[in-house]
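Quick one: FAD-dependent oxidoreductase from Thermogemmata fonticola, structure tokens please.
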Amino acid sequence: MQVVVIGGGLAGLAATVALARRGVAVTLLEARPRLGGRAGSFRDTPTGQWLDVCQHVAMGCCTQLLQFFRTVGLQHYLVAQPRLVFLTPEGRHSYFQAACWPAPFHLSRALLAAHYLTPGDKIRILRGLAALLRCDPDEDVPLEPWLRTHGQTDRTLARFWNTVLVSALNEPCATAGRKYARKVFVEGFLQQRDGWRVHLPIVPLERLYGSELQAFFARHGVRVRLQAAVRRLLLDPLQPRVAAVELRDASRLQADHYILAVPFYRLPDLLPPSLFEQFPVLDRIRQLETAPITSLHLWFDRPVLPWPHAVVVGGVSQWLFRRPFPAGVELNGTENFSPENSSPSADGHSATVLPSPQQPAVPPAVSAESHYLQVVISASTAHLAGGHADLQQRVVQELRQLLPAARTARLLHARVITEHQATFRPVPGVDRWRPPQASPLSNLALAGDWTATGWPATMESAVRSGYLAAQVVLQRAGEPS
Ligand SMILES: Cc1cc2nc3c(=O)[nH]c(=O)nc-3n(C[C@H](O)[C@H](O)[C@H](O)COP(=O)(O)OP(=O)(O)OC[C@H]3O[C@@H](n4cnc5c(N)ncnc54)[C@H](O)[C@@H]3O)c2cc1C
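--- reply ---
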């Protein structure tokens, strides 16, 4: 059996791995010059460093993603953090880690010790969590009104619920649905002891999806074609099935089955409009909306963050990540990320990348030894009103307030990147617009974090969708899955 997988993000990679391990002949077509999709890296020109466009983290409850890394032998590049650090603007911090009590009580001590919540806040939050645990997991009502009817206040929303959910869902409580908020808290923090633990890659994503994954593919006979953008899928005129894919270079490729693992907003370019009119399940995809995530890459002349990461409570910044990667980590990627090669036309992603407004293009003092800090701001629309320059200024000012070492540190170099279509928005009832992996075409499966996986837009959702799409292909081919 021959399968063509279109899109080398995590969804396409997971589908490819699942099929290749069963001896299926897979050709993977990726528009960009590298694999990984939205979970990607760029090479910063002045420092020569490989950096993630945005730091990606996995939680312990992302079981299929962690299993995927084990399958391809990359699990040692992810390190589970023993604790989380929560920082408040006045510069105080609390550690968040599990006690030896069984779930769901293992994190109670950490919550009770949080310096940024009053005793009254903590009682309200515990009541809210208990209500969340008891409510219908599939009912996707508007989250914030529901939280308020369960005793939550402006303060607990800002200091607790939004602190966790804006990063986890890329959506604030005010507009999110309850279903995926519940999933984050129940599966991440209540149901199992290790669900909350944050797994951080210790190498840039470029390394994860670069040579080592390609070696796995080579061993399993997968044909990977980079810079092989698909222009459209050609349909069989007599029956609802795909006849071939046409690439941008006008060449055509035929297979028994096809998996389309591109972002949802690319589907109308690749499939004929008549298909959307004929099949409401495809037409509904158009209702999905996207939200941006902004990352600020800052190089200082000295270390400013004393921990590998920190969560900021009540600030503009949400997560801080310290780098560099441990000594001895060598990279062998070749791509240079720049505004030119990140243009929407290349692969459907649209990112804005700006050097610091105040820094010269190649600042004299910056080097690979400069101290790098990444600041991540999810659901960043409201913070972008004044532009990247304004946001950078506010973030640097905030860092000087939060971190004593930053007060005297000199900012040597900076980049601000906004991924405008970072994730689909988990608004109430969003699942009615997410299609199953089995498309109405008999030899086409869909994959992507936006398909029906029961997860919000995450690497976990992408991997699950890839596995489910592979299962559809195997079932339709009459093979045991
Ligand atoms: C800034 C940012 C931060 C994030 N942080 C996290 C995080 O911390 N934790 C987490 O779990 N998730 C995070 N996510 C979400 C996560 O990155 C995505 O959910 C996941 O990577 C999606 O994978 P995918 O395969 O579904 O889609 P994509 O990664 O978008 O992959 C689709 C692939 O299809 C390719 N393609 C598109 N059109 C064509 C074509 N015509 N022909 C061939 N190929 C094509 C694209 O180039 C791309 O490689 C973040 C996302 C962003 C943008």
